[in-house]
Every structure is written in structure tokens, then in C-alpha cells.
Amino acid sequence: MATTRNALRIDRWLFYSRFFKTRVLATAAVAGGHVKLNDDRASPGARVKPGDRIDLVRERLPYSFEVLAIPARRGPAAEARTCYCEDADVVAEREALTASLKQDRLLMPRTPGKPDKHTRRKLRSRNRG
């Protein structure tokens, strides 16, 4: 689970802990200001150690957790989950946001099957007016 290292770059930690599919995406999120380390904007080379707090916005959904361990590799999801403890309030907020997004999607007009050119035009005209 954890190695003898006591710190790891934040982009590697996010990749190893399975918050991003690739390290490039993790680096881009950190460089773009979507990740805070101990309430400060992080740089991709910032070091993460057990006890640090990470706040993250991914796909418009908030995540907030405390680092418990430094993973040795990008392993299975169950192994990655042992490296952090997520804040229960943020989990509830994220679930509420997800539910509201699903509700918005249900209110959109539906078509039987894939819409053709004419149906798409009708759908767009309904949404404008």
C-alpha cells in the first residue's frame, strides 16, 4: 500500500489515487488551479505527505479529502481508496449536485431514437423560445 517515501508530487498522487486517468490530466488540473493543497493553490511539483488536505474540482464536482498514505503505484481502486479519507459533507454536496444534474437531464425533450436533421432543428427552436 504505502512506501517508505514520505512525500510525493501532487500530480503523481492524484494519478496513483485514481482521481485522473492519466498523469497528464492530473498535471493539467493542478496547473489550471482546480487543486488546492492545504487551502493554497498547488503547483504540479508540490509535495503531498500524510496529513495534508486536498480540495479538488473535477468535472464541476467538488472533492475534499485528507491524505492518509503515499501509494507506491497506481494499483486497484480498493488499494487507492486506503490512501485518503474523504470529507462526508463534500460527498453529500457532490451527490446532491449529481442528482440535480440528472434531474435537469430528465426535463429535456426526448425523441424516439436518434434525432435526424429536422428533429434537431425542432428541438433547438423549442429550447430558444
Features:
single chain; 129 residues; alpha+beta; 5-stranded antiparallel β-sheet; two-stranded antiparallel ribbon; 5 helices
How are the SSEs placed, and which strands pair?
Blueprint: E1 8-9, H1 10-16, H2 23-31, E2 35-37, E3 40-41, E4 47-48, E5 53-58, E6 61-67, H3 77-81, E7 84-86, H4 88-107, H5 117-128
Antiparallel strand pairs: 1-4, 2-3, 2-5, 5-6, 6-7
Helix pairs in contact: 1-2
Write a structural description.
The structure is a single chain. The protein is of the alpha+beta class and 129 residues long. The chain has helices at 10-16, 23-31, 77-81, 88-107, 117-128; strands at residues 8-9, 35-37, 40-41, 47-48, 53-58, 61-67, 84-86. A hairpin with a 2-residue loop joins strand 5 (53-58) and strand 6. Helix 1 crosses helix 2 (23-31). It is elongated and about 60 Å long. The termini are far apart. The model has no long low-confidence stretch (mean pLDDT 89).
What's the short story on this structure?
The protein is built from 5 helices and 7 strands; from the N terminus they run E-H-H-E-E-E-E-E-H-E-H-H. The protein is α+β, with helices and mostly antiparallel strands.
